């Protein structure tokens, strides 16, 4: 039975990846931080077969203890402070967790496998946010990185550290450059879930206004369930490498709004939406669109869920969830 250790187990991707690996017959271990993490119960309920270990990416010794307990064949480093807007307000913490945390995890794996550094396969959750002020359209593995946020800068550090550990120590360390991926499990601070929740509440008469930032930003959005499959495929390759994982399509935040409102039969959506500078960013990533052809070719990976299906899936889920919460 193969064994996997996942950091960021309480997050969107941690849950989907756990389900995928359990289905494939893995023994799955998850790292959870804090002395009384409020998401502990939710993880227990959602993936009861996952073994939970206490640890934090900023604490190297906790990572070494986790490796000793889990004895993994594969490590998926998904833990991060992942909300871009928050990263300006907490730039140093973001650097410590999202940037230096990767180095801590790589170093823990290296020290744990001194006999054979390629014994554990390592996945780093890199991000299209690294492309920032894009230098090429579409973005591919070789596109020059130009991050626009403390989060993006921290991810660039983690990305190059992963490559450096592969080249310096012969570790099987791969970096997945994933474009935005969403789901009904997406945190409500991210734009897609903020919209799907608000649209559901407006349809149910529970909310009358949605306050937004920049509606012109464009993203390459996919479904998280499809994207965790790509993480696993990367670690099954004979050689470690870096891959762009994307849908190859781009849509604006406005397109997402139009589609979500249309799903509940509201065409005159502009009457419900107000923009506020509070939600604008000091430096914006205007447009992302990925070229996933290397992943198609070498991993045989293709996403199943398209943009319209993703929006419907999220709005339908929130209609049910919000109706339940309102006792309807
Ligand atoms: P998420 O839902 O925000 O989950 C982040 C996870 O990191 C949570 O489990 C969180 O735990 C954990 N974490 C935060 N601080 C930590 C620390 N100090 N030590 C250990 N764990 C810590 O993010 P996601 O959407 O699942 O994304 C997973 C990874 O992919 C992240 O690294 C993200 O940056 C990256 N990524 C995401 C996307 C996307 O579109 N979703 C795209 C590209 C890359 P708590 O619950 O305790 O806070
Ligand atoms: O949903 P977002 O907060 O995601 P963002 O910044 O693209 O980051 C996500 O994707 C990255 C991959 O590229 C990940 F690495 C990262 O961890 C995270 O998962 O914002 C998307 C866009 C931005 O341009 C933002 O300015 O939506 C715009 N936006 C407009 N109004 C808003 C809002 N974003 C949020 N969160 N809230 C708004 O009210």
Describe the structure.
With 328 residues, the chain is of the alpha/beta class. The protein folds into 2 domains: 3-181 and 222-245, NAD(P)-binding Rossmann-like Domain (Rossmann fold, 3-Layer(aba) Sandwich), CATH 3.40.50; 186-219 and 249-288 and 305-325, UDP-galactose 4-epimerase, domain 1, CATH 3.90.25.10. 43% of the residues lie in helices and 16% in strands. It has 11 helices and 13 strands. The protein has helices spanning 12-23, 40-46, 60-70, 84-89, 91-112, 150-169, 191-203, 224-235, 253-263, 293-299, 307-325; strands at 3-7, 27-32, 51-54, 74-77, 121-127, 172-178, 181-182, 210-212, 218-219, 222-223, 242-245, 251-252, 273-275. The strands form 4 sheets. Strands 3-2-1-4-5-6-11 form a 7-stranded parallel sheet, with helices on both faces. Strands 7-10 form a two-stranded parallel sheet. The radius of gyration is 20 Å and the shape is globular. It starts with a strand and ends with a helix. The structure holds NADP nicotinamide-adenine-dinucleotide phosphate (NAP) and ligand G4F. The site of NADP nicotinamide-adenine-dinucleotide phosphate has 28 residues, from helix 1 and strand 5.
Distinct small molecules: NADP nicotinamide-adenine-dinucleotide phosphate, ligand G4F
| Adjacency order of strands in the biggest sheet | 3-2-1-4-5-6-11
Question: What is the 3D form?
Answer: globular
CATH hierarchy class name of the largest domain: Alpha Beta
Assign the CATH topology of the largest domain.
Answer: Rossmann fold
Report the biggest beta sheet as strand number plus sense, adding barrel if it closes: 7 strands, parallel
- Topology order in helix (H) and strand (E) letters: EHEHEHEHHEHEEHEEEHEEHEHH
> What is the number of domains?
2
Q: Per CATH, which architecture of the largest domain?
A: 3-Layer(aba) Sandwich
Helix percentage range: 40-55%
CATH superfamily of the largest domain: NAD(P)-binding Rossmann-like Domain
Q: What's the total helix number? A: 11
- Residue runs with pLDDT of under 50 for 5 or more positions: none
Radius of gyration: 20 Å
Per DSSP E runs of 2 or more residues, the count of β-strands stands at: 13
Strand residues, percent: 15-25%
